[in-house]
Write a structure and sequence with these properties.
By secondary structure, the protein is mainly beta. The protein has helices at residues 4-15, 18-25, 105-110, and strands at residues 35-52, 64-76, 80-83, 86-89, 124-125, 128-135, 149-156, 161-171, 187-198, 204-215, 230-241, 246-258, 283-296, 300-309, 325-336, 341-352, 362-374, 379-392, 402-417, 421-437, 444-460, 465-478, 481-494, 501-514, 520-534, 537-549, 558-571. The radius of gyration is 28 Å and the shape is globular. Mean pLDDT is 84; it is low at 1-27, 395-399 and 439-443.
Length: 572
């Protein structure tokens, strides 16, 4: 990133400003000053080293990574607050949209994993809150709530009314670069709005609108197979407080999505005029809805819900929402014996490929049950069971399957509290069983995993000391043979100089073996220290080494990693 050095110099200078300013505002007289600055700032640095005697083994981290995080809040009186947010990384760290090989300043701050503070402010003045920069409008389950917008927005809550509006960019324009494996992407702009009335903890109704469109002119050249797109949706979400303990909630939504803005226009009339939304042969409209009834009596309760997502429904504010499904869920819960026994469960049914446009329609049964019991002051136990089953309607012998996945775990805990120390021992057993059965040919496959763990934690108060020890064994039955993993971990920590310095150390040994191969061996060590330099100023540093030596699967091969991590944090 060409602008990284300049950005880090500016951010580092800005990071040093809040501490003296915050102290200057502290009059010490007990009365809050009219202008106040609070928040935190952190600068982190990672330095990574890697060596190996096999060219097929590659580093798993960048050689260095710097990161600055600054979250100050400026308050004027009791009604106006201006929270800022800066998150800067020395490298392109985005994993959501295509990476930019040499990002511009604007592309850098639009990266979903980087925010530039003075462009990411959310001032609040009473019932008015505004956004400038990166923010996530959260409207409803089917409209928006998981899409970062780089732009501006406002959220008004006068009394029982609710008005919200946001506009900006949700995707950067990235030119294709096949030599560096960079995928192209059009710039996508979005407008979101909400209007409603009511108490969101009681009875309310909200109308949500979302409109998104790619900028076809944002790329100098159009890559093959990539077309600019456009979409719009409207939804009504509501809640009706039937009583103090019963609530009915739901949402009805409709969307239109055009997969290629350059496709031929349709030759039939549409309920939406072309001036509002131009449709073509690649446009598809569909619906979605949810409905839930919840009963809450404190120690007892149950929730039942249903959800339908049409095959062509596109939720522009939830990029990974799975369409084309219908599901139902029933989830009861209860607490007994003065809350010492807690039980909760769920059972659900899901059908995919309702439109029959895919190769097969599958049905899924999803169930789970959890229990926690506090047997005595010393003993407690947690149990969990989950079931996931899939069946499809394919008649072909080689494709018709039934799969069932069962997961069970139990974890008893014993705690011994003495005057000078506390000792906690936890044991756990977990079984994950997966069965794949061809109902026509009778062929059956399985993949079962079992794990056992024993963990000890001891803490002493008079002599500040903590010790940890754990032993873990895992067996995974794979088609190539059984994978066995054994791990032993030991750790210790203490505090010095009246708690100002807290050193710690951890050593780990692992033995991993697949089928008839001789075992791989891994030794790791980590030493760290936390130093409270002054009130509100802390330095955390750690160095770790990982030495991995292969068995007969890669005879003689090994690699070694070293990692130094440091973080300076201040609160004000």
């Amino acid at each position: 990133m060409r602008h990284s050095p300049l950005l880090f110099l500016c951010a580092a200078a800005f990071l040093a400003l809040p501490v003296p300013y915050a102290r200057a505002q502290d009059g010490g007289g007990g009365e809050r000053p009219p202008v106040r600055l609070s928040g935190s700032a952190a600068a982190t640095a990672d330095v990574y080293g890697f060596s190996a005697n096999d060219s097929t083994l590659q580093p798993r981290r960048p050689s260095s990574l710097l990161r600055l995080v600054l979250t100050p809040t400026l308050a004027f009186g009791d009604h106006i607050t201006l929270p800022f947010n800066i998150m800067l990384s020395s490298q392109e760290t985005n994993v959501v949209t295509p990476n930019a090989k040499n990002s511009t300043f604007l592309q850098f701050i639009q990266n979903p994993l980087n925010n530039l503070g003075f462009l990411s402010v959310a001032p609040r003045i009473g019932w008015l809150q505004a956004y400038l920069g990166t923010h996530v409008p959260r409207y409803s389950e089917l409209s928006a709530g998981d899409e970062q917008v780089f732009g501006a927005g406002v959220d008004l809550t006068p009394g029982l009314f609710r008005f919200a509006l946001s506009a900006g960019s949700v995707q950067r324009a990235i030119e294709a670069d096949s030599a560096n494996n960079v995928r192209a992407a059009y710039a996508r702009h979005v407008v979101l709005g909400k209007i409603g009335y009511g108490d969101e903890n009681g009875t309310f109704a909200h109308l949500n609108l979302v409109r998104a469109k790619d900028d076809a002119a944002s790329l100098a050249r159009r890559p093959a197979g990539l077309a600019p797109q456009e979409g719009a949706l409207a939804s009504l979400n509501f809640r009706i407080g039937v009583s103090e303990t019963v609530g009915l909630s739901g949402e009805a939504a409709a969307s239109a999505f055009t997969r290629d803005l350059n496709a031929d226009p349709v030759d039939f009339s549409s309920p939406l005029p072309a001036s509002m939304y131009r449709q073509n042969v690649s446009t598809r409209s569909d619906y979605a809805g949810t409905l839930a009834l919840a009963w809450d009596e404190g120690d007892f309760g149950v929730k039942t819900s249903g959800k339908y997502i049409g095959a062509g429904y596109v939720s522009l504010g939830y990029p990974y929402l799975q369409p084309d499904r219908l599901e139902f869920l029933l989830a009861p819960r209860a607490r007994f014996f003065d809350k010492k026994l807690s039980l909760n469960a769920s059972i659900g049914h899901r059908t995919n490929n309702l439109s029959s446009t895919k190769g097969a329609t599958s049905t899924q049964i999803i169930g789970s049950a959890n229990a926690f019991a506090l047997i005595s002051e010393e003993w407690s136990v947690a149990l969990r069971y989950a079931n996931f089953g899939v069946r499809n309607n394919v008649s072909n012998d080689t494709l018709r399957v039934e799969t069932v996945s069962n997961a069970f775990s139990v974890a008893p805990t014993y705690t011994l509290r003495a005057q000078a120390a506390t000792h906690t021992i936890t044991a756990s057993y977990a079984l994950d069983a997966f069965t794949d059965h061809n109902v026509v040919s009778g062929a059956q496959g399985s993949n079962n995993t079992q794990s056992v763990m024993l963990m000890y934690l001891g803490t002493w108060t008079e002599t500040p000391l903590s010790l940890t020890a754990s032993v873990h064994h895992m067996t995974n039955d794979l088609p190539a043979g059984a994978l066995n993993m054994n791990t032993l971990s030991l750790g210790a920590g203490t505090t010095l100089f009246e708690g100002a310095v807290a050193p710690s150390v951890t050593v780990t040994y692992s033995n991993n073996r697949l089928a008839s191969f001789t075992a791989d061996r891994q030794v790791g060590a980590r030493a760290g220290v936390q130093w409270r330099i002054a009130d509100g100023l802390t330095l955390n540093s750690a160095v770790s080494v990982n030495d991995y030596r292969y068995g007969s699967a890669k005879p003689g091969a090994f690699f070694r990693e070293t990692l130094f991590e440091s973080a300076l944090t201040t609160t004000f």
